[in-house]
Amino acid sequence: MTQDTHRGTGRLTRTRLVAGALAAIAALGLSACSGGGSEGGQTGGGPAVAPAASEFWVDPSSSAARQVEQWRSEGRADDASALEKIARQPVAIWPTGEVGGVEGEVAGVVSQARAAGRTPVLTAYNIPNRDCGQYSSGGAENEDAYREWLGNFARGMGGARAVVVLEPDALPQTLTNCEGESRQEGREELLSEAVRTLSGAGGEVYIDAGNPGFVTNVGQLADGLRKSGVAQAAGFALNVSNFMDTRAVEAYGNQVSSQLNGARFVIDTSRNGNGSYDGPDQPTWCNPPGRALGTPPTRDTGSPRVAAFLWVKEPGDSDGDCRGAPAAGDFWPQYALELANNTPGA
């Protein structure tokens, strides 16, 4: 496997920052007052996108939901209907990395989920030197700033139950020394602290462990997870923002789990309906053509070790400025529509 291919299998895109969080919360509040309620998905801006039946909370103000409303208003009824395949599903919220804003943002999500009788899914993504300073660069300035951010994140949760996917790519990049480009010291202890902080606040915490093409030494990955506090967590997470086939990811996860006394894991199925892209166009990881939505979020996985299938990455968020796409993390309606149109069923 070449280094470029390795990056393709392991690369996480820029975080989905909820820039309009306060506006979304306000819209949801108006919805509740009007009698529509969060459960119906009604927003103050137009007709509802009915949420799928699920334990997990569906954000009625997601990028996909807003795009549905825009296309309806423009008369693009067929495209809007197709995009509802995304808008009606629960997708993880990636809260801001700003210390002063994360508590309120998390509290708003948790409050709306509680009102709807559902469980929110959150992604904690702010570790120092995030993504080795590359495509999704950023993160807290230092470890103390990260601890402060985690504390505010935890206060926002307020003891309410929430699924938390912890630091996508952080451990795999540590174990591979940022793919040989730099070293990441002390990451395991910092992740272990995060597990304790977020679990104590009500979090069902899953430590991200990459995917089958990232850390191929299963024993090395299991040891890293131990050092990162997996015994105190709910388990580990796989395939975040990636396209790998669920069966391959599950087989890999079972190998890791077997070295961790049967630890459970979650799989990101948001865009893996057609598996990974193996065509000639490069890079293979960046907005690859011909992909489809995967299994909708559910606890009914058919496996005692797979705790849930989740949509951690919002389908339609760009992987980067390739193939005519906008910057990483920006919603790209045309790609979202392609994913939806390539997915059979409602």
How would you describe this protein?
There is one protein chain. This protein has a single domain (3-23, 90-321), classed as 1, 4-beta cellobiohydrolase (TIM Barrel, Alpha-Beta Barrel), CATH 3.20.20. Helices cover 38% and strands 8% of the residues. It contains 12 helices and 6 strands. The protein has a 6-stranded parallel β-sheet. Helix 6 (143-157) links the parallel strand 1 (121-124) and strand 2. 53% of the residues are buried. The active site is at residue 169. It comes from Actinomycetospora chlora. GO terms for molecular function: hydrolase activity.
Summed up, what is this model?
Its EC number is 3.2.1.-. With 346 residues, the protein is an alpha/beta fold. It has helices at residues 3-10, 21-34, 63-73, 77-87, 99-116, 143-157, 170-175, 177-180, 187-200, 218-227, 246-258, 333-341, and strands at residues 121-124, 162-166, 203-208, 235-238, 264-268, 306-310.
